[in-house]
Amino acid sequence: MTSFDCKNKFKPLTEGTYLKNAEEYKRLYKQSIEDPNAFWYEKAQEFLTWDKSFTTISSGTLKQGNVKYFEDGYLNVYQNCVLRHKEKKPNDVALIYEADDPEDARTITWLELSEQVQLYARVLKHLGVKKGDVVTIYMSTSPEAVYAMLACSYVGAIHSVIFGGFSSEAIKARVLDSKSRFIVTQNLARRRGKLVPMKATVDRAIGGLDFIRSVLVDERVSNMKDQFEMKSNRDIDLKPFVSEFQKGGKYENENADLQAMSMNAEDPLFLLYTSGSTGKPKALIHTTGGYLLNAALTHKTVFDIREGDRYGCMADLGWITGHTYIVYAPLVNGTTTLLFESTPDYPRITRYWEVIDKWGLTQFYTSPTAVRFVMTYGTEPLKDFSLKSLRVIGSVGEPIGVEAWNWYFKNVGKSKCYLVDTYWMTESGAIMISAIPGVTTLKRGSATLPLFGINPQLLLNGDNPQNQELNLEKKSKKQFLEIAENSQSGILTIKGHWPSITRTILGNHKRYLDTYLNPYPGYFLTGDSAYRDMDGLYFIKGRIDDVLNVSAHRFGTSELESAITLHPNTVEVAVVGMPHKIKGEAIFVFCVLKDKRVDEKKTKNELKVLLQKTISKVATPEHIVLVDSLPKTRSGKIMRRILKKIVTKNYEISTYGDLSTLLNPDSVKQIVQNVKKLF
Ligand code: ATP
Ligand code: MG
Fold first, then answer.
1. Domain named AMP-dependent synthetase/ligase: which ranges (predicted)?
2. Residue 259 C-alpha to ligand 1 middle, in angstroms?
3. How far is CA 596 from the centre of its chain?
4. How many CB atoms within 10 Å of residue 451?
5. Is 635 in the pocket of ligand 1 (CB under 6 A)?
6. Atom 18, ligand 1: which residue's CA is nearest?
7. Which atom of ligand 1 is nearest to the CA of 633?
8. pLDDT, tens digit, for every residue of 247-301?
9. CA distance 265 to 289
10. Rounded CA gap, 98 and 205, in Å?
11. pTM score, two decimals?
12. Which residue, 51, 348, 549, 642, is the most exposed by fewest CB within 10 angstroms?
């Protein structure tokens, strides 16, 4: 891996940078690990406004699974995310809404945001939403969804945002699991210019669920009343209803002076289901104080946030990335944040670049899957855009791989912007490992260094032959399984806790303990494996279960996939292990080609040679199957667990587990057919 000397390549850092240099990072990082209470005390004062100050900073342990932060402190989310900014800069832009149709774009000021959130909160209160109630939000990435999210905490409720593309079955399972009696949705949504029946989907989901009290329906698309039904005594047309609470309306005086609820720092702020890449999605709970603090701190640090920035994260609100880095972190920091409702190729393949230039975005944050998608169109679509406002570009969700990293850095970042590969997960609430612009080293393919309070430890994997010597040595010294040395791979864990760690799985604390905390007492198990290079920088190798053991050599899916995508005609690749009598496991490659009109045999051979050359002879694939697309979650991650079933010759899709978050079921059918042909 090549290290970049970034110093001369980046736009000069001007005043306003949060951290000044690497020394400051090192000093603060050391404090955050060695004296976390002192560190978090200071940051809690700096980033948040408290109604009632706390006397305890943190308590509990990972071993017991009872971690708490600021447990006797009280704060109010509305004040932190909206009010204090409204008071300072009422007419500045808080939200940029880049609607599906670019013509529908609009901006919302801090003043407007505060008014709308209050109105939504009064509506929820009127309907009887109380502290601790779960409110389901099933909407597109839109200002109304943000109003609904913030209105929940205003009245002390917990939101459960469900990605707006999910099926009625997926909604039903989540509404039942969370016992949510209130739903906020839209009549229809627009996605790539097409109408999506949101309300009708909700109706199918909740048919027969008698405990549903209210369904609030925002009119996202006008004049569509004939497209769905409204059930009396349950369904409410939100826009006119909200108007009744405004000046001159029927409920003008009802709760007119409703104050935002002061929340205990440990009160749940929201619950959110994971992406479902490795199994049935887990409903994780995030609390208020610690979550907001670490969201804001990581956002400020990783994206080099400064006053006046226009920050754009392209994720959907329905993922943790949307929650933390579209809504809560930017709002706590008073940063203008963009809501992107569309896709990178609608109405044209230039959409991302149009958005950046149109709004003068200073930060742009997206996923490797989106980068790989726009890459397939080459650099031609970029030629009319300067992208000169950008300072930081980011990636999240999967290992970005060398090829995509280079393309993104060169063509979007113009080799000047800092590219932050941010490693984290729903459970962590906020970024855990990432470069810091202008402060820490940048290395392509690496998420680099831990952020404050995150103490990553690579643990030995007992069955890893490469580690056997190290293993024996450690055992003889009666050391735990931590790998202290660099240039080593291991199971990625986080030692100790941090403020935004998820506190539990909804209704299943045992599963929480068993999944994350019990496997290595005192450590949080991320589920991923990583390599720490000679400079101490981290490379995420893939999921622990996806690490392949081929003839006693261990390969991370990410390193194999990254090598294959170096081939100029590959777009996306997924590698899984297939049981093999002699090798233990054999490498099975699924590959999407850019240009499909090539000699397949020749291409497959080139891919084979590429793996042998860049990795090793042992990495010679057993099979390479060319497909049109790979099965992915709606958050853009490859669902390798499906591919793993297929390569064991299990062709029964109904046995593949929870597929509620699968984006493209058709791809599975095609892959099954192509694999069947092999055997
Ligand atoms: P589930 O937990 O339901 O199986 P999931 O793990 O995909 O789904 P998320 O919380 O959305 O759900 O994703 C977190 C995972 O995404 C991480 O554990 C890691 O595997 C991967 N990931 C996120 N960011 C990065 C990154 N920058 N580099 C490598 N992998 C990443
Ligand atoms: Mg996960």
1. 85-459
2. 37
3. 32
4. 26
5. yes
6. 425
7. 7
8. 999 999 999 999 999 999 999 999 999 999 998 899 999 999 999 999 999 999 9
9. 4
10. 29
11. 0.95
12. 348
